[in-house]
User: Fold this.
Amino acid sequence: MSPRGRLGAWLAHKVDAYARTARHPLFWVGAREMAGISVGLTAWAFMTGVAMIKSGMSITEAVLMSLLVFAGSAQLAAIPLIAAGAPLWVILATAFCVNLRFVVFSLHLRDYFMFLPRTQRLYLGYFTGDVTYVLYTRRFPKPAETETQRRAQMAYLWGGNVSNWVFWQTLSMLGIFLGNALPARWGLEFAGTLALLAVACSLATTQLRALSALIAAAAAVALYGLPYRLNIVSAIAVAVAICLFIEPKVLARQSRAEGEPPGDRP
Assistant:
């Protein structure tokens, strides 16, 4: 087969695989659940687009940054540095530090996706954002054990990813093309923060999870003065360390309570 024929066969195989994923019922479940949160996130995306234009970027530069970076917090951290003419290594280091939380996410998701080729894991990482990660791990606390379960989990994740990407890019592009016609600050970026906060609160379903959230929040505020938003990563580390220390004690107490007759409990 000629190189052109092999390329055509490869593309046909990929299109068929993605079509099967899109036809899976959980694909649309993931898309709908993500869409329900996207109102706040798209306001954040809109303000990110506006910020890029207001910083002096051309429309072409802003569009490329939105498509290639696809990380609102990293973009907002890098934009003032770009506008100030900071060295490239400073811009990259800042964006890396702001997005260090995705290293934690990746470690958690490693067991879910190790069956995929490296290339697929790389572009899956590009599409997976904070909220899609949260929704996915809430629905699937453990990795799949069978091929059928893997397909279901992948369909749900891709549904959320596609929905998130389309909403984000659409509003980001609107912000880019309308940015010069809008006031510098409308306060819409706070809507994205509220949306993320709502998702985080929905995960606090146990006392230990609620405690870890409170510890992380307190640590993030206490360490707010750290550069490059390292307070976020530090807060995660503090919460994980403390909860790893107390989790065995909590589980042991619960086991003892469940093993005792109701009348013997204090």
Remarks:
- The two ends are 76 Å apart (CA to CA).
- The chain has two domains: 3-203, 207-266.
- The longest helix spans residues 147-178.
